[in-house]
């Protein structure tokens, strides 16, 4: 089943969004990480770590500034067996929509299309 | 430049960034958040500690991974990822032709990952023009690279945190452009 990955500048945003999704779409796997050394920021290491734990094709969400850059670099260096997609949709709304779609069995390409629609 | 010389040059950047910390901090205080000096110092301290002997490819890759994990903000990952990408095209002995390829990959990586083109007051203004310096002089001399960084002084930032300063960013050399001068200078092939 498709998994979700969230990278935020803030630990609270990452864990809060994960909690929201897990309550609304039970059974969907969400990897979330935010903040660096107890402060605000993102780094590639934490994204690498999450990617090493995914067990299926995954849709990634990011928040502001350099989180996209770090995410793109981590995905480019990813050497695992799964397809990793980056969604441009807002982190809370986008990951929530993706989780609901995953839970009702929508395939990943369709979900990516719906996520692109959100930012048109 | 063989692997031993390259490792020496990269380790030497630790001393360079210790010496230039206050200069970079002063520039970044003007048009950023003031952490570029300490970030670069931290990054190359880690490079000196962690990057050990190996092939040219290994050394560049290790340097890249170390910079990515030890420098915050956008510049660490950009420099780090560029080193990783450069490792993929590096030959055991970096000659003038190979160096041109490395700089080309460096510029392309910063452009694609940093989403920059030229004239936006960023490190890219130095890295992308270093190729021309190399073609003209066969070297990456400090004074020639410095001219490229000086050119960013009158530019108005439209990328990165400096963009929030808009017109006020004029009159200060971009800190990333300045640190790029030192990094590129480490690849200077000395005259035999």
UniProtKB/TrEMBL annotation, chain A:
Biological role stated in the UniProt entry: Component of the dihydroxyacetone kinase complex, which is responsible for the phosphoenolpyruvate (PEP)-dependent phosphorylation of dihydroxyacetone. DhaM serves as the phosphoryl donor. Is phosphorylated by phosphoenolpyruvate in an EI- and HPr-dependent reaction, and a phosphorelay system on histidine residues finally leads to phosphoryl transfer to DhaL and dihydroxyacetone.
Keywords: Kinase, Transferase
Main enzyme class: transferase
Official protein name in the record: phosphoenolpyruvate--glycerone phosphotransferase
SUPFAM superfamilies membership: PTS system fructose IIA component-like
Catalyses which reaction(s): dihydroxyacetone + phosphoenolpyruvate = dihydroxyacetone phosphate + pyruvate
Gene3D superfamilies assigned: Phosphotransferase system, mannose-type IIA component
Species per Swiss-Prot/TrEMBL record: Lacicoccus qingdaonensis
GO molecular function terms listed in the Swiss-Prot or TrEMBL record: phosphoenolpyruvate-glycerone phosphotransferase activity
Keyword Amino-acid biosynthesis among record annotations: no
Quaternary structure and partners: Homodimer. The dihydroxyacetone kinase complex is composed of a homodimer of DhaM, a homodimer of DhaK and the subunit DhaL.
A biological-process GO annotation: glycerol catabolic process
One cellular component (GO) term of this entry: membrane
Pfam families named in the record: EIIA-man
EC number: 2.7.1.121
Domain named PTS EIIA type-4: residues: 1-120
Taxonomic lineage from the root: Bacteria, Bacillati, Bacillota, Bacilli, Bacillales
Automatic annotation (TrEMBL), chain B:
SMART domains for the chain: Dak2 (SM01120)
Keyword Transcription regulation: no
Parts forming coiled coils: none
Domain called DhaL: residue spans: 4-189
EC code(s) of this entry: 2.7.1.121
Involved pathway(s): Polyol metabolism; glycerol degradation
First-tier enzyme category under EC: transferase
Keyword Kinase assigned: yes
Subunit-level organization: Homodimer. The dihydroxyacetone kinase complex is composed of a homodimer of DhaM, a homodimer of DhaK and the subunit DhaL.
Protein name: phosphoenolpyruvate--glycerone phosphotransferase
Organism whose genome encodes this protein: Lacicoccus qingdaonensis
């Amino acid at each position: 089943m498709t998994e979700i990955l969230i990278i935020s500048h803030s630990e609270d945003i990452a864990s809060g969004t994960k909690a929201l999704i897990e309550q609304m779409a039970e059974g969907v796997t969400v990897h979330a990480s935010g903040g660096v050394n107890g402060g605000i920021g993102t780094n590639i290491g934490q994204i690498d770590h999450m990617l090493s734990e995914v067990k299926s094709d995954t849709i990634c969400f990011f928040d502001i500034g350099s989180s996209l850059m770090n995410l793109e670099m981590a995905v480019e260096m990813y050497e695992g067996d799964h397809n990793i997609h980056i969604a441009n949709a807002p982190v809370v709304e986008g990951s929530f929509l993706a989780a609901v779609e995953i839970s009702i069995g929508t395939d990943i390409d369709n979900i990516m299309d719906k996520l692109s629609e959100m930012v048109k | 430049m063989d692997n031993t010389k390259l490792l020496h040059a990269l380790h030497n950047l630790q001393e360079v960034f210790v010496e230039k910390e206050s200069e970079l901090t002063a520039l970044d205080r003007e048009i950023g958040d003031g952490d570029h000096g300490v970030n670069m110092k931290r990054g190359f301290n880690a490079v000196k500690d962690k990057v050990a002997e190996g092939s040219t490819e290994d050394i560049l890759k290790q340097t890249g991974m170390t910079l990515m994990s030890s420098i915050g903000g956008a510049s660490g990952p950009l420099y780090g990822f560029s080193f990783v990408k450069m490792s993929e095209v590096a030959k055991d002995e970096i000659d003038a032709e190979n160096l041109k390829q490395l700089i080309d990959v460096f510029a392309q990586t910063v452009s694609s990952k940093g989403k920059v083109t030229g004239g936006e007051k960023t490190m890219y203004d130095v890295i992308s023009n270093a190729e021309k310096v190399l073609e003209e002089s066969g070297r990456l001399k400090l004074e020639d690279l410095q001219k490229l960084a000086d050119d960013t002084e009158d530019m108005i930032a439209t990328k990165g945190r400096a963009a929030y300063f808009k017109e006020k960013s004029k009159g200060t050399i971009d800190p990333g452009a300045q640190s790029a001068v030192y990094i590129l200078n480490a690849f200077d092939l000395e005259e035999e």
